[in-house]
Automatic annotation (TrEMBL):
Source organism of this protein record: Malaciobacter molluscorum LMG 25693
Cross-referenced InterPro entries: MATE_fam, MATE_MepA-like, MATE_MepA_subfamily, MdtK-like
Keyword annotations from UniProtKB, A to Z: Antibiotic resistance, Cell membrane, Membrane, Transmembrane, Transmembrane helix, Transport
Name this polypeptide is given: Multidrug export protein MepA
PANTHER family recorded: MULTIDRUG EXPORT PROTEIN MEPA, SPORULATION PROTEIN YKVU
GO molecular function, one term: antiporter activity
Protein location: Cell membrane
Source species, domain of life: Bacteria
Amino acid sequence: MDVTKAKISSIFFQYSIPSVLGMIAISSASIVDGFFIGNYVGDSGLAAINISLPIFSFLFGFALMLSVGSSVVSGKFIGEGKLYNASVVFSKTIISISLFSFLTCTVLFLNIKTLLHLLGANKELTVIAIEYLSVILIFIPFLMIGVVLDYFVRVDNRPNLAFVALLLSALINVILDWLMIVYLQKGIFGAALATGISQLTLLIILLPHFFSKRATLKFVKPVGNYTKIIKASYNGASEFVNEVSVGITTLIFNYVMIKKFDIEGIAAFTVINYLLMIGIMISFGISDSLQPIISKNFGAKKYARIYEFIKLAFISTSLVGIVMIIMILLLPETLANIFLEDDNYKTKQIVLNFTTFIWLAFLFNGVNLVISAYLTAMHKPLASMIIALSRSFIFPVFFIFTLPFLFDLNGIFMAIPMAEIITFIIAIILFRKFNAKNMDK
């Protein structure tokens, strides 16, 4: 389909459904990781993964920044009919992510113990986290390159291929989790190995597309300097800021949780992150699918169509939020039991206290994600970054330190919902300012 001319609802669902299914595949793989680790390794395993999250957030965030920023630029070139320019952007992006990922992961691998000390891991967590990270860091470069390929495959009109790659990666992860953790009893090392091997799947499935006859984007000689890639990265900076902010916020939450509730606090926060991930990844899949659509329509100056796509995304993410709220309010204990053994009473109680408040976040986070993605695709990176920073760093950190003074421990559990509410107000103001509906006038 030509996304600048075909029926709006058909385009929206053709792009959003594979993207959502792909995000479900990714999140389900992580959730299955949590299930196996929580039930067969225990609280310490969940805590070790969570203490490592800031490292993963930084690396994944950089890959997203390059992917989103460059693919939006490439998509705009395709919309303008400049196919060679689009291929140059693609080729330079692959070179950039390859060099950065392998060099950075090598440096991190050689300094794992120091890194974990800076992240606040105690002796017990350090031992387990080293076992996990020493494997994951070997494979993360392949994931980062795979993420870039995933975005460019979708810009190149192959959203279903991107979904298949994500789905197979998730299925392989689940199978290997069972094999490594349950059958071979390799514990946290097995979980890391399963995740790492599954990440190679993205690369193996997506890379051949760019050598096929169906590809619009090709590997070409990367002529000229890399200034455009740096500028493109700035356009995707909100995704980097969002991921890094999540990592920093997790670090701060870990500090507060371990201080107030000991290791059970970090384990409980990990479970809450899994619950948040389910809804957020679906909404992220919807909002993320908009970027290739909007960037091409933006290049073709089809502003009225952009507005219609956004309306469909708002409706879809709101429905996702309602479903998540119903699940959390009606089945909180059942959800907690998925990740925790029967005798983890203290951890379960902390999770249940969290769920009393966390459901409010789902009223607003879907709309926040859609508006942030829309602003990135419309080449408004600063506005998009404001939303990303607000929901993932500024307000969560502000509220986790201020609300406990007013509401005691409940203030910790209220921090994330309050951050989404305030961000929602900011996002609506920015959306009204940069509304595509007004650009035709």
